Amino acid sequence: DVVYKGKGKVFFDPDDGTWKDKGPFENLGLTLEDYGASKILSTIQAQYPPIDLKKRYAVLLQKEKKKSDSIMRAEMRAQAIKDSIEYQEKYPEQKTFPDSSFYKGHLLDGKRHGYGQWRTKAGSVYEGFWADDKKNGKGRMDYKDGSSYEGDWKDDKIEGYGTVTWANGRKYIGYLVNSQRHGQGIQYRADGTKIEEGNYSNGYLQQGICFDSLEREIYNGECKDGKYEGRGKYTYYSEDGRTNVTTGEWKNDEAYNGSCIITEPNGTIYLREIINGKWGKPKKQETNSNQ
Predict the structure, then answer these.
(1) Is the model's pTM score more than 0.70?
(2) What is the pLDDT of residues 54-63, one digit of tens each?
(3) CB 159 within 8 A of CB 141
(4) Which element (helix H / strand E) includes 198?
(5) Are 269 and 261 in contact (CB under 8 A)?
C-alpha cells in the first residue's frame, strides 16, 4: 500500500452533502493513485458520512420557526400588557350621560377633565382634552357626516389654530375664532389645489389671493363676505394665450374703477378703462420696437 505523507484537502459538496476529492491534486498535476488518496477519501467518507442537507435545513427552519413564534408570542403578550396599561391610563373612567352619549377618560368631581373620548348619540366622536366638562386644548372631532376638525378648542368652541375638513374633501388650515375662520389661513380643494389664501374675518376672506381650479384666474386684494371688495388685482390667463390684468377698485365681485390691460398672444397690448362699473372700449397701446 502507498502511504500518504504531507498535506492535502478534500472538499465538502453542499449540493449532496458528501466529500469530494477534486481540487488540489489536479492543480498539482498529480493523480489520486500517486498518494493513495482514494483510500484516504474512503476513510474520510466513513468517519464523516454524507449529510442530508435538505433534512438538516428543514430541521433548522423548524427550530428557527419555533424560536420566532416563541419570540412573537412573548412580544404579543408584552404589547398586550402595555396596551392594557396605556388604555387604563388613557381612559381610567367611564360615564354615560342622560342623552345616551358616552364618555371614557379622566373625570374630576364627575366632570370631564383631562384627556378623554366622547361619543355623541348621533355618532360623532371627539377625542382630546377637556376642562370643567368642556372641550379645551388640543382635540379632534369626527362628525357623522364625514367632516372633521382637528386643532385648538376653547370652552366647547373651535378656537385657535387647526384644520377643518369637509365631507367633500375640501380643507381649511389656519386660525379660527368662535368656530369660524378668522385670521390667516389657506383653503384647499379635495385634489390639494388652493382655492384662496389670506386673512379671514368671521368666516370670509378679507384680504388675500383667490385661485380657480386650473390657476388661470388669480385675484389678489381686498374682500368682503367672500366677494372681491376694495382694492385688488385680477389676472386671467386664457387657453389661447391671452392675458387680462385688471387693477383697481372692486365692488361685489366686479371691477368698478380701474383699468384692464389685455395682452394678445402676438404681443399686441390693449387698454380698457373702467369708470363706475362701466367698461370703455379697448385702445391699442403703442409699443417700443427697440425693446
Answers:
(1) no
(2) 788 888 888 8
(3) no
(4) strand 194-201
(5) yes
